[in-house]
Design brief:
This protein is α+β, with helices and mostly antiparallel strands. It contains 10 helices and 14 strands. Strands 13-12-9-11-10-14 form a 6-stranded antiparallel sheet. Strand 12 and strand 13 form a beta hairpin.
Length: 367
Amino acid sequence: MVRLSSPISSRLILAGSYAVIGGIGVYCVFWLLYGEAPRDEVSSFLYQAPDHTAFDDVLKFMNALGPPFGILAFTIPFFPFTFLYASFVCPSRITVTDTEIRTKSFGSERRWHMSELQSVTFKEAGNSQFIIFKIGGKTLKAEIEHGRWGAIRDLLPAGITNPVEQSTSRQVRHALPRQPAVSIPDSLSYVSIDKFEADYRSEIYEQAAQMAGAFEWWNEPLWLFDRISDPDRLTGQSRLFRPDPVDQDEIHIIGREIPLQENALMCFIDAERIIGLLQALSEEHEITWTVSENEGRDEIGTIHEGAVPHEIYQWLNRIRDSWTLTQAEIENHALHERIRQKHTDSRLAPLNQEDSQPLPSEKEAGT
């Protein structure tokens, strides 16, 4: 079950439209009856009053405003009432389950069975994402958080294709494969802003290795090393994307290609896990990590005192949304193990940085 909130902009637009229509209608009637040049029969009825009254001043003022401001003056009183009506028509909350879609407005609830769903549209406006349902002849619009589409997609009928393609319906049963807008990241790099003494770095390296050893990895685990060009900073890099296996002549083995969807899923899991381990190390040792992708060329964000910034979560969500990874797939450990076993003989050797040197072991350091 996923709960969505209907954007207030929908209610404001609907209320404003009705208010403007009402304002124009009332102003037209006013101009017909009280305009500066009314019809003769109306004029003879209106302007035979023996005494000048405050009502005459109001008429003169409204005539002086002219059509644009006059319409606005009549529109404003309508708006509170049209907004109440729009709030009643547009639901404030939309709940999506695997069997039905429920809407709630002003305490009343309406339900549609999922079989009545006609189409789903996914749109972006600035930093906001919206999903539009057409169900039972009614259009429902809701704002969704980045990364929530996977959970919603799992609840939709199989006949509804991916709404990321902007317009979807039951008439399109077989959608063509979509090229993701975000490619699979090749690697994840992480460097500390502060410098540390060698013995303290060695302690952190040992702890990081123990933490990483508690998990199974798709390609390369969290790995810290001393970079020769800047040895005092904690440096690490993990290749996420696993290339297709090759033979001894570096030729791709036909039929052994790793499906991109599986590669993307496992890369996402490793990346999310690495971010979590960096967060734990940052919180415990007060390390500020600069996280980047693609050999350190593209900075993603900075983890400071155990706080992961919004930019890093957005980066993860873009990968998940682009490859339509569902929460069920992400949490299915049995699926992950099957994928690892299927491609276990194509694993690469651990990353060997040319510009790195391992710290000596305690035994070597003591001799």
